[in-house]
Amino acid sequence: MELAEIISPNNLIYKKPKLLTDKTMHYCPGCGHGVVHKLLAEVIEDLGIEDKTIGISPVGCAVFAYNYIDIDWQEAAHGRAPAVATGIARTNPDKIVFTYQGDGDLASIGTAEIMHACNRGENIVVIFVNNAIYGMTGGQMAPTTLLGQVTSTTPTGRDASLNGYPLKITELIAQLPGTSYVTRQSVHTPAAIRKCRKAISKAFQAALDKKGTAFVEVVSTCNMNWKLDPVEANIWMESNMFPFYPPGDLKDGSKNDPASYSPLKN
Amino acid sequence: MGELKLMKGNEVIAEAAIRCGCDGYFGYPITPQSEIMETLMEREPWNETGMVVLQAESEVASVHMLYGAAGSGKKVMTSSSSPGISLMAEGISYLAGAELPCLIVNVQRGGPGLGTIQPSQADYWQSTKGGGHGDYRLIVLAPSSVQEMNDFVELGFQLAFKYRNPAMILTDGVIGQMMEKVVLSDYIPRLKDEEIEEKYGSWITSGRKNSRSRHVITSLELDSGRMELNNIRFQEKYAKMEEDEVLYEEIQCEDAEYLIVAFGSSARICQKAVDVARAKGIKVGLLRPITLFPFPKEPIAALAKQVKGMLVVEMNAGQMVEDVQLAAGCSIPVKYYGRLGGIVPSPGEVVEALEQKLIGG
Question: Residue B326: which H helix or E strand, with range?
Answer without folding.
Answer: helix B320-328
